[in-house]
Amino acid sequence: MTPKQSAFVDYYAASGNAVDAARKAGYKKPHPQGAENLQKPTIQQALAERNKEVSQSRIATIKERQEFWTAVLRGQEPDADMKDRLKASELLGKCHGDFIDRVESTGVHEIVVRYVQE
Predict the structure, then answer these.
(1) Is 57 exposed, middle or buried (0-12, 13-18, 19+ CB in 10 A)?
(2) Residue 20 and residue 11 in contact, taking contact as beta carbons nearer than 8 Å
(3) pLDDT of residue 63
(4) HSE-up of residue 100 (Cα within 13 Å, Cβ side)
(5) Domains of the chain, start order
(6) Whether the Cβ atoms of residue 95 and residue 113 lie closer than 8 Å to each other
(7) With 90 as the cut, is the pLDDT of residue 5 above it?
(8) pLDDT per residue over 16-69, tens digit each?
(9) What secondary structure, in 3-state letters, does 19-86 show?
(10) What is the distance between the alpha carbons of residues 94 and 116, in angstroms, rounded to a whole number?
């Protein structure tokens, strides 16, 4: 990808406007060249990777959620009341598999369900 195409990807990712991105990237004919750039596989791939990075940064990871729940559970979040702390405890327990339902079959028609808390 050329430096101009790379700049186009950056500007397009920020604005979503192909003509404006082409103009800012330095293309002489931004109207047709912006649309043409969106059809190029290398630019489409670069935009897809950029969108993937953005969406990943917007979604909390498992570790981030667990750290937040732990902070709430321990009362480190100022607005967390007992209801919130209990819910955080439950979510952490579920996340770590503390409340697993185990199903055991002892015959053709009989099913025994045991609730196990580890």
Answers:
(1) exposed
(2) yes
(3) 87
(4) 8
(5) 3-58 (1.10.10.1400), 62-117 (no CATH)
(6) no
(7) yes
(8) 899 999 999 999 999 999 999 999 999 999 999 888 877 677 777 888 889 999
(9) HHHHHHHCCCCHHHHHHHHHHCHHHHHHHHHHHHHHHHHHCCCHHHHHHHHHHHHCCCCCCCCHHHHH
(10) 12
